[in-house]
Amino acid sequence: MRPENWYLTDDLDEFLSRAGDFLRSRPALHTVPLTVTDALRRRGLHLYGREAPLFGLLEADDGAIRAVLLHTPPFQINVTALTPQEADALAVRLAGLGRSLAGVSGPKGATDAFAAAWQRRTAVAVAVDKRQRLYRLDELTVPEPRPRGRAWIAGPADRELLIRWFEEFEEITGGVGQDPGNWADARISYGGVTLWETDDGTPLAMAGATPETAGQVRIAPVYTPAPLRGRGYAGAATAEVSRAAREAGASEILLFTDLDNPTSNGLYQRIGYRPVADFAVWRFGD
């Protein structure tokens, strides 16, 4: 595998025209590049930062696409499944361009291989930042006992609440750093956040969902303010947004969990989510 097999471009349309079939071939495992490129297409290339994104294609000698990468600086690059040889070729290609990387995210084997290759090629320190598991909804089971309250699709009147809760969620999870106002506006525009609230309208928890892309929807974020946790509100909100996605026709309903959080992993399995694959996020630098 040669570094030159990695074709790099900043042209999103070109990338999607060449990689679209590959991404849609495994929508669950490719949920992140599918949803991120969809967001960039709808909301602009500088959604995540001032620097232009970079997209990559790994082409076999017969022209078939074997893997892709996307990089939305200043955040980590995201990769699909890679062999150690493919990861090393990518590290050589990016290091040769003087590309600065904050880290890498993607399937565990691919990220482990790329982090090792990046350290070997650049002498930069690397460390695991998050261990994640991707789940797919099987048979939805509403958690019992169901807490009192109701589901509510967040609208313009809820904007300030969504901004505040998104900021709190990002702080505790070390999220990707989107502008909270832009995030709230985008989610409100398509009904992308479901609130669980009391019967008199006091919000208790939220569960979001990405727009449907290639038949898949990913549930995120799920958040309950600290004083309200442990009462079933997040589970109720997640079950409701999962039900809505299925009824809207999504064939794959997905979510990521932090493997260091046994509470959330247990909750989602009780709702009906089943493991698909393990993912990881590595950080580069001190």
Structure description:
- The chain is an alpha+beta fold.
- It is 37% helix and 28% strand.
- It contains eight helices and twelve strands.
- A twelve-stranded mixed beta sheet has the order 1-2-3-4-5-12-6-11-10-9-8-7, sandwiched between helices.
- Strand 4 (77-79), helix 3 (84-96) and strand 5 form a beta-alpha-beta unit.
- Helix 1 packs antiparallel against helix 2 (31-43).
- 40% of the residues are buried.
- The mean pLDDT is 95.
Task: Please report which band the strand proportion falls in: under 5%, 5-15%, 15-25%, 25-35%, 35-45% or over 45%.
Answer: 25-35%
Number of helices: 8
What is the percent of helical residues?
25-40%
- Main structural class: alpha+beta
Largest sheet: 12 strands, mixed
Principal-axes shape call:
elongated
Low-confidence stretches: none
Radius of gyration: 19 Å
Give me the oligomer status. Answer: single chain
Order of helices and strands: EHHEEEHEHEEHHEEEHEHE
Mean pLDDT: 95
Strand order of the largest sheet: 1-2-3-4-5-12-6-11-10-9-8-7
Overall strand count: 12
Terminus-to-terminus distance: 30 Å
